[in-house]
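Posted in: Protein Modeling Q&A

I'm a second-year student putting together a small comparison for a lab meeting, and my supervisor asked me to include a predicted structure for Putative HIT family hydrolase. I've never done this before, so apologies if this is the wrong subforum. The sequence is pasted below exactly as I got it from our records. If anyone can share the structure token output, I'd also love a short note on what stands out.
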Amino acid sequence: MTASFELHSRLQEDCALVGDLPCCRVLLARDARYPWVILVPRVEGARDLDELSAEEGLAVHGEMIQVSRAVKSLFQPTKLNVGVLGNIVPQLHIHVIARFAGDDAWPGPIWGAHPPLSYPPEQLSARAQELAQALGLMINA
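Accepted answer (user: helix_wrangler)
Welcome! Here is the predicted structure, written out as tokens:
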């Protein structure tokens, strides 16, 4: 992946680091309403999936499946939502969100439904470590 990769400032503010897979940086959204993982391919300047090489695209897809399976295993959601939007944060990133019947936005989309509900710091760290362990990653404490 790109040596000059830099994470968009909005993602830095809104997420906690889980760790790095071979292709993607793995983040945990700070909104405690939903188990919400964000994958950011470490490809400088990428805004959309079609801008990845075939090799990068396959790697990103594989990591998206890996993260999806980990989220399902950890949280047993009613439904897993996976999306690539980028209307606010232009840097290519993929949302993997565990949804539950009866969650605060169910069955609608989560975006704009409610203001984010922050994790207590110790719970955010524990959730990030739990995800890192499920993905076989080392976390920067």
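A couple of things worth pointing out for your meeting: The longest helix spans residues 54-75. Residues 23 and 49 are 13 Å apart (CA to CA).
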